[in-house]
Automatic annotation (TrEMBL):
This is F-box domain-containing protein. InterPro entries: F-box-like_dom_sf, PP2-like. It comes from the Eukaryota. CDD domains: F-box_AtSKIP3-like. SUPFAM superfamilies: F-box domain.
Length: 335
């Protein structure tokens, strides 16, 4: 037997606990792939010890706040099943104002704030906004439907401690349109809405500290801002936004007005699993980094503003979702 074969044979003789520990130091995708190595590896890779390490340390406390947390945990025969359940069907928290799930690739937390959890300008004025029972494909029992405003502003806040440390997140506005939508078009040369993502960490957090420690702590604020397109006229419009384009409007007296292209504008895309024929879509508002665990408290604030003065109708807001930015390949948990 060559050296490589001998080493493989030695691996198969390892106790299951040792194999499980080694697999728990990898990723959910690696655990699924390793289960195909041998029956012994499959038993280790499917063990509760492995998948408990992929679940957030505070998942039990979070599920205790969930509207259906007991049912979600009770219907799962193993930690792997619970992981898959949270990846495929996030649970609702705090009277359906927030949802909690997991990213299938990394196991990082995914949180979505419902429209009820957001601060919406004029949201309590029934002549401006209407609260509608959850539409097909909506995660929450009700959504906010815009009736008539000229000033659109939506803001959401979340403690960084509710997200996974040492992770880069992106914030997405999840929305749809009613049949009578007006004033939200995004055409070349027209003013665009703005999205801002601000993270205040350190002393700006809300966790209590001793006075001396609070005085010594520093506050760090980072802000990212982007132009947003909610509604464009098809794929050609998206391409036009991203290409070098010059539009010249010639007036009778010969003056040329030049509109330079905006290469940074964020355009919408259909939302995965929207279903129900409601046409749910999402647009990325910006990204931010959650510091590594080690003492930093903080808050992330995501805001979306449209202040062009145009009267707007027909926007349907489901919420703002915060989920990790991942580039790794999607995995199947039933492998």
């Amino acid at each position: 037997m060559d050296c490589e074969g001998a080493a493989a044979a030695e691996i198969y003789r390892l106790p299951e606990e040792c194999v499980a520990y080694a697999i728990s130091m990898t990723t959910p995708g690696d655990a699924c792939h390793s289960s195909a190595v041998s029956p012994a590896f499959r038993a280790a890779a499917d063990s509760d010890a492995v998948w408990d390490s992929f679940l957030p340390p505070d998942h039990a406390a979070i599920l205790a706040r969930a509207d259906d947390g007991v049912a979600a945990a009770g219907e799962c025969a193993s930690k792997k099943d619970l992981f898959a359940r949270l990846c495929g069907r996030p649970v609702l928290l705090d009277d359906a104002t927030m949802s909690f799930g997991l990213d299938r690739r990394s196991g990082a937390k995914c949180v979505m704030l419902s429209a009820r959890a957001l601060s919406i300008a004029w949201g309590d004025d029934p002549s401006r906004w209407r609260w509608t029972p959850g539409l097909p494909g909506s995660r929450f029992p009700e959504v906010a439907e815009l009736l008539d405003v000229c000033w659109l502003e939506i803001t959401g806040k979340l403690q960084l401690s509710l997200l996974s440390p040492a992770t880069t997140y992106a914030a997405y506005l999840v929305y749809s349109f009613a049949d009578y939508t007006t004033g939200l078009e995004c055409n070349i040369g027209m003013p665009t809405p703005m999205a801002t993502v601000t993270v205040v960490s350190g002393a700006g957090g809300t966790t209590s500290r001793p006075p001396a420690a609070a005085a010594a702590a520093t506050t760090t604020t980072t802000t990212e801002q982007h132009k947003i397109c909610l509604q464009h006229m098809g794929e050609e419009e998206t391409i036009m936004h991203r290409q070098e384009l010059v539009i010249r409007l010639r007036k009778a007296f010969g003056r040329t007005v030049r509109f330079d292209p905006d290469m940074d504008i964020r355009c919408p895309r259909p939302r995965d699993g929207g279903g129900g024929g409601c046409g749910w879509r999402e647009v990325e508002l910006g990204e931010f980094a959650v510091p590594a665990a080690g003492g930093e408290d903080g808050v992330v604030e995501v805001s979306f503003k449209e202040e062009t003065g145009r009267w707007k109708t027909g926007l349907i807001v489901q919420g703002i979702e915060l989920r990790p930015k991942c580039t790794s390949k999607l995995i199947k948990l039933d492998s």
